[in-house]
Amino acid sequence: MTQTNARALFITGIKNAHAMENQALSIMKPQISRIENYPDVARRLEQHIKETEGQIARLEDILSRVGEDSSTFKDWALSMSGGMAALAHTAASDEILKNTLANYAFEHFEIAAYKSLLALAELGEITTACPALEANLKEEEDMAEWLDANIRGVTLHFATLSEAGEKAKV
Ligand code: MG
Ligand code: FE
Known about the structure:
Blueprint (H helix, E strand, L loop, with lengths): L2 H32 L4 H27 L4 H11 L14 H29 L6 H34 L7
Helix pairs in contact: 1-2, 1-3, 1-4, 2-5, 4-5
Magnesium ion binds next to helix 1 and helix 2.
């Protein structure tokens, strides 16, 4: 593989990650606005939204450093938005559970994406991008760990509220 080809794969991967992070925002933001009974979840989502905005800025910085035209980049990102919107589970009585499972899956998708990008960065010898990609990866791993540690608690809280007749509330 030539370095030119490897760099092209890397740039496509960064654009994919940028679209993925915009999708992450569109999944998390509606959740926060609906949560009433799970303040810990709301706080952690709030934190991760801020982290995600920083991740997007890191990806845009990487892209500008490899000399990619940012206008075509934005067009592409917009065309990709909505691809995983089916992950939103509004109006289900067990919305908090469905969202918890979907968020867990999405964070693992992100983890895989950054591990793949790190491999492409090495292949294309764009190792200056690695610290920023590692930083994004770490935030996804931390979020995935938090979700993992809270699946049981959220489920039991949901069960308690459900028994108390508050099943329609998120
Ligand atoms: Mg992310
Ligand atoms: Fe994430």
